[in-house]
Design a protein that fits this description.
The protein is mainly α. The chain has one domain. The chain is 71% helix and 8% strand. The chain is built from 3 helices and 2 strands. It has a two-stranded antiparallel ribbon. A hairpin with a 7-residue loop joins strand 1 and strand 2. Helix 2 runs antiparallel to helix 3. The longest helix is centred in the middle third of the chain and has 49 residues.
Length: 132
Amino acid sequence: MVGGQSTRSALKSLQNELYELQGWQDDIERRWFAARQRDLQAQVDEEQAGDDAQAMTNANRALGLLRQIKVESAQARQAEEQKKRMEAQQATQPAAQQAAQEPSKVIRLEVLGRPAVDVAVGRRRDQPAEHS
């Protein structure tokens, strides 16, 4: 059975490597947490069959810690994704704001007896840009 366990381990390792290259980090983490939870639950079941109360307590605490790690890992991943979205949004905003602030035309108004006035005229959003 050692050979079967070894090949299973190699297969899981290679699958994780492929998933990581393909950007499937969520799937890798989900599988890792599920495997750890199965292992810890097996330890809890084993300790329940024995009389070692401290070992059973430790195994149950380990399960609780694993759940906490899973929650915090998910929160950190969500925060990182939100940060990336915000950075991407901020990267596109300055160009859009600059384009909105720059007038497309400046018109000089001159009226007899009054000083000349330059008026900036922006183009409407539905109006195509003029090319000189």
